[in-house]
Amino acid sequence: MGQADRQGARRRREFGTPDWIVLPHSTFRELGAQTVLDAMVERLGLPLILKPDQGGSALGAQVVRDAADLPAAMVGCFAYGDTVLAEQYIEGTEVAVTVVEGADGPRALPAVEIVPESGIYDYTARYTAGLTDFFTPARLEADAEKAVGELAVGAHRLLGLRDISRTDAIVAADGSVHFLEVNCSPGLTETSTVPMALEAAGTSLGAVFGELVERATARAD
Ligand SMILES: Nc1ncnc2c1ncn2[C@@H]1O[C@H](COP(=O)(O)OP(=O)(O)O)[C@@H](O)[C@H]1O
Ligand SMILES: [Mg+2]
Hints:
The protein is built from eight helices and ten strands. The chain has 221 residues and is an alpha+beta fold.
């Protein structure tokens, strides 16, 4: 393996995403619904998760454990948009990792572990206080904690983000880290994970956003 290949392999591993397929609504007309549904299950296996390609807060996201439930779940997901992102479902520990930029560049704050009572971190579990347990720092092995921090800083840098971001990821039982997405305007409500990470890092929303505003003002001068 040449150096470029090794670097490529490392990058793929660091930014490993669950296997995925993007399905515009027109695919079903062009190829026939049953062909597409069969191909999805063959490629991704079960369980899989469907998400509209737009929006957020898990609106429209559905976990499909049984192939018989797939047609109705697809119809439900298309109600939220014209394109569905289907992904292999990863069982594991869900974490949210905040990255904040300071004078020394971007750094990851302690990962916040998300444990929804219902098992699914859906809209209700996100915005209803008490329906989800959070552990900060996350109950991860030291290696996995380090890996999710590097993943979040790497994603922040790779995407050219600025000031603050939050990366969502799942750590599977074997310790492998699966990147879900980066949020460049992360939630700041009382049930959001960014304020929890800031508190665990010994600071606060007010202090950090005050610094970010100062940096932004200096940039604009
Ligand atoms: N591939 C996956 N495997 C397991 N759970 C997933 C997967 N993708 C998403 N989820 C779950 O669905 C939620 C919403 O998905 P996400 O991709 O983060 O979209 P959103 O922009 O709506 O937050 C996640 O917080 C996680 O609980
Ligand atoms: Mg998310």
